[in-house]
Amino acid sequence: MSTVFNFTFVPWFRSVAPYIHMHRGKTFVVAMAGEAIAAGKLPSIAQDLALIQSMGVKVVLVHGFRPQVNEQLRAKGHEARYSHGIRITDEVALDCAQEAAGQLRYEIEAAFSQGLPNTPMAGSTVRMISGNFITARPVGVVDGVDFQHSGLVRKVDAAGIRRGLDFGAMVLMSPFGFSPTGEAFNLTMEEVATSVAISIQADKLIFLTEVPGIPQDPDLPISEENPIDTELPLDSARKLLASLAPAQRPTDTAFYLQHCVKACEAGVERNHIIPFAVDGSLLLEVYVHDGIGTMVIDEKLESLREATADDIGGIIQLIEPFERDGTLVKRSRTEIERDIGQYTVIEHDGVIFGCAALYPYPEAKTAEMAALTVSPQSQSQGDGERILKRIEHRAKASGLDSIFVLTTRTMHWFLKRGFQQVNPDWLPEARKRKYNWDRKSQVLVKKLG
Predict the structure, then answer these.
(1) What is residue 351's predicted lDDT score, i.e. its pLDDT?
(2) Per-residue pLDDT tens over the stretch 364-406
(3) Percentage of the residues of the chain whose pLDDT score is greater than 70
(4) Cα separation, 161 vs 318, whole angstroms
(5) Which residues of the chain have pLDDT under 50?
(6) Residue 390: Cβ-neighbour burial (10 angstroms; 0-12, 13-18, 19+)
(7) Which residues contact 210 (CB under 8 A, 6 or more apart)?
(8) 3-class secondary structure per residue, the chain
């Protein structure tokens, strides 16, 4: 084994370890679009889900079958019809949906049963459970359109799903539901996944889709100048959704976003839109800091916010121990009072548990993030990353290209989160004049967007 491999693999594996610990025992609902299976991505997705489950995550897998049903309809010379973004399911379409669901369930179970030596599935044991967990009702007639056998979720058997997960199995669900009289209804994968995630209060809802995420400017194509917005706070997602036209196709920006917002509002704190076209996108989104798609996050304003004068005492109390041991440069109360508008804080039950300040240097299109502090009582719970993300959003909103930090003891924490070390001469002239050469702080920079 090469030395180069050792020096790249070991730091990488250590960098993902916090996420392995963080997600152990958590529940993910993964909604896999039928287009992913049609594109031949099922084997690699199965491998990644098996790996995620092996690291202690409970998984509910909901599959779609839009292209498979359309293919069945074409074979029978029947036209696929949609309205309001929902399939109109007549008798022929219902038969096609049942055939497609049965075939896909067989293919998915087969994919999770592979265990050939020298493959990622070697030695894996993935038990799958499926059943009639969804009670459905008809869509009915909407704006004069009779949706016939298309349905909506009426009720989710959350207790039954949890029992399957607690048994150690992966729960597999098709977009079908049944009425109390036994009538079958064709549902949408997106609604089933969202309803299940809400009912079992999943920790994550992940849409594995044909779109790469939501660009920072939804009106323009994705490019280097208009990249994917990796994190959308719920409030921003609501505003964006209100500005968009109603979704008709899966490629419409609002199509998956509306379900992420609904789940987020109902208590599912992390909701993701990621592309199946990128190999390993599930692993990249779950175990890499910046992820690969868009995450809609329930960021409660009362806990993560910009500081006010009422927070000065709490900030001083939080940072004093770190100033005494030399981790932070000492700041006077007068300095903090003067700069309070630059601070972001995390507050839990009236107590400040984390903070950071942002000092912009507009002429250099950059800003310093200073005094990043998290209380020892809440470290390793992601508060530092939440503050970092908020600081990044503030810097982006100000039109800045990067942020930088000066640190003597926490360099590796920043390196794992996308910062790069530079020479102190890189600093803006105004900041360079205040640089303490005796302290020998490391200068780390992160590019934004």
Answers:
(1) 79
(2) 999 999 999 998 876 767 789 889 999 999 999 999 999 999 9
(3) 94
(4) 43
(5) 301-302
(6) buried
(7) 33, 35, 36, 250, 251, 275, 276, 277
(8) CCHHHHHHHHHHHHHHHHHHHHHCCCEEEEEECHHHHHCCCHHHHHHHHHHHHHCCCEEEEEECCHHHHHHHHHHCCCCCCEECCEECECHHHHHHHHHHHHHHHHHHHHHCCCCCCCCCCCCCCCCEECCCCEEEEECCEECCEECECEEEEEEECHHHHHHHHHCCCEEEECCEEECCCCCEEECCHHHHHHHHHHHCCCCEEEEEECCCCCECCCCCCCCCCCCECCEEEHHHHHHHHHHCCCCCCCCCHHHHHHHHHHHHHCCCCEEEEEECCCCCHHHHHHHCCCCCCEEEECCCCCCEEECCHHHHHHHHHHHHHHHHCCCCCCCCHHHHHHCHHHEEEEEECCEEEEEEEEEEEHHHCEEEEEEEEECHHHCCCCHHHHHHHHHHHHHHHCCCCEEEEEECCCHHHHHCCCCEEECHHHCCHHHHCCCCCCCCCEEEEEECC
Supply 427's token pair: 């600093």
pLDDT in tens, 196-235: 999 999 999 999 999 999 998 888 888 888 888 888 889 8
The residue among 241, 263, 242 whose CA lies nearest residue 254 is 241
For residues 236 and 216, what is the distance between their CA atoms, to the nearest angstrom? 11
Which tokens in the block code for residue 394? 């503030």
Q: At 40, list the tokens.
A: 């031949």
- CA–CA distance, 219 with 187 (Å, rounded to integer): 30
If you average pLDDT over every residue of the chain, what do you get? 90
The answer to whether the CB of 395 falls within 8 A of the CB of 448 is yes
Predicted TM-score (pTM) of the model is 0.73
**Residues 51-82: tens digit of each pLDDT:** 999 999 999 999 999 999 999 999 999 999 99
The number of angstroms, rounded, from the C-alpha of 98 to the middle of its chain's C-alpha atoms is 31
Q: Which residues pair with 196 in a beta bridge?
A: none
**256 touches 188 (CB < 8 A):** no
Is 210 within 8 Å of 227 (Cβ atoms)?
A: no
Q: What are phi and psi of 356, to 5 degrees?
A: -165, 155
Tokens, residue 245: 């036209």
Interatomic CA distance for residues 436 and 422, integer angstroms = 16
Distances (CA, A) of 50 to 55, 110, 201: 9, 13, 22
pLDDT (0 to 100) of residue 377: 72
Rounded Cα gap, residues 25 and 47, in angstroms: 19
283, two tokens: 């692993």
